[in-house]
Structure formats: structure tokens, C-alpha cells
Amino acid sequence: xxxxxxxxxxxxxxxxxxxxxxxxxxxxxxxxxxxxxxxxxxxxxxxxxxxxxxxxxxxxxxxxxxxxxxxxxxxxxxxxxxxxxxxxxxxxxxxxxxxxxxxxxxxxxxxxxxxxxxxxxxxxxxxxxxxxxxxxxxxxxxxxxxxxxxxxxxxxxxxxxxxxxxxxxxxxxxxxxxxxxxxxxxxxxxxxxxxxxxxxxxxxxxxxxxxxxxxxxxxxxxxxxxxxxxxxxxxxxxxxxxxxxxxxxxxxxxxxxxxxxxxxxxxx
Length: 268
Prior knowledge:
Order of helices and strands: EEHEHHEEHEEHHEHEHHHH
Low-confidence stretches: none
CATH architecture of the largest domain: Alpha-Beta Complex
Structural class: alpha/beta
Helix content: 40-55%
CATH class of the largest domain: Alpha Beta
Number of domains: 2
Strand content: 5-15%
CATH superfamily of the largest domain: 2-enoyl-CoA Hydratase, Chain A, domain 1
Radius of gyration: 20 Å
């Protein structure tokens, strides 16, 4: 019997954590038609599981020595029409990035090895990015006469500012993990063998936290740049009051006074 093809994206939901894993290590997890369709399919499953109350945190990771080298350039070479190929490939990737970015739970990405092109958008759509020391980010788009996709221009500009984003994308000079840490592109750097244990510990901690609080924090921080101070203060007021009405808030303050660990997520 013929063997079942290995899916390009893996999904495991366990202990309220959705683990999404890029699974084309022999190709540096490049993005193509098949990967894009698989990615949005997996992300939709995660969103549905969140709506059922089954997901409290998400972990993005990759099999092999490289997180994602970007688009499938060999596929571009083989295509009769590169523009048509891109026009078909980009929409599912963009839907997946938007869904993950706006999901009201913490998203963590664990990035190792090469990170280029659209892979940057996948990694940086996370709320927290942690990296291995082998991680190396390179824009790559202008080197092949293309422009950014998968949210790369948005994420880089938001994290490092317009001038530095242009420098990364104009010059394609690689940034190592420590440079990315200094620039604010990643939150933590770990030895290669310690990356996944650190990522697991982080998402497990987040999954046990007060999800309503984390969702409000995510929303407030993500919206802050487009709000005036007055608007942001109003949103903070509304958010604090809404959180204060939750069972988790009652549990949190009670646990603090009783000097014990809170047990969030219980029914009111």
C-alpha cells in the first residue's frame, strides 16, 4: 500500500495548548500552495477549538534546523506566471496570519535557524517570539525583486520602526539572534537545545493564566498605537471593569491575600 503523505503543517491540541508545527524540514519549511492551504486549515481548527473553550494558548514551531526560509523560490522558477502563483498562494497565508494575530489568547513562536521572507510574518505574528542562538533573520524580498507579504512589512514596522524596517528589507543583511533581541524582534534567546523546553514552559504557564486578562492585555497593547491617550484610557477603564467582573479576578485577589497560587479557569 502507498504511504500516506506527510502533512506540511502539524496540529496537536493538548492541555489547552494548540501546537502548530511547520513540517517540511527537508525544504527549510518553505511556503508554497500546499503549505498555505494546510496552514489556514490548521488555523481555522485552532480558532474553532478556541471558540469551544478548548484552547488557552498557541505555540508555533518548526521541524528541522530551520524555522522557515520564506517562499518556495524553486516553485517561482518553475511557474509559467509568477504573479498568478503569488495571487493564488498569498490569500490563505494572509487569512491565517490575521486569524492568529487577532486570536484572543497568547501566541508564542519558537524560532530556530533561518527565518526569511514570509517566514518572518509567521514568526512575528506571535505575541511573544523566543529564539535559538542559531536563529538568523534575513528579509530576502528585494534580492529577488519582490515585496513583502504575510504581514512582514506590518510586523517589522510595528516592532522596529519604519527606518529600521526599510533597512532590513532594502539591504537583506542578516540579523542574528542577539541582534534581533536588541532590536525588539524577539523576547528571549536560548541555546538551541533549550529552545523547545523554554517554549513549552512558557505556553504552559500562559495556558494556566487568566485568559480574560491576557486577552484584554493583548487587545490594549495591539490597539495602543492607533489610539489617542484619551481613547486608550477609556479602553483601559472598560477592560479593567470587565475583568473585575470575572470569576478569575475574584480568584486572583483571593489567592493573593491567602498567599497561594491562583487556580484560574474555573467556572463562576
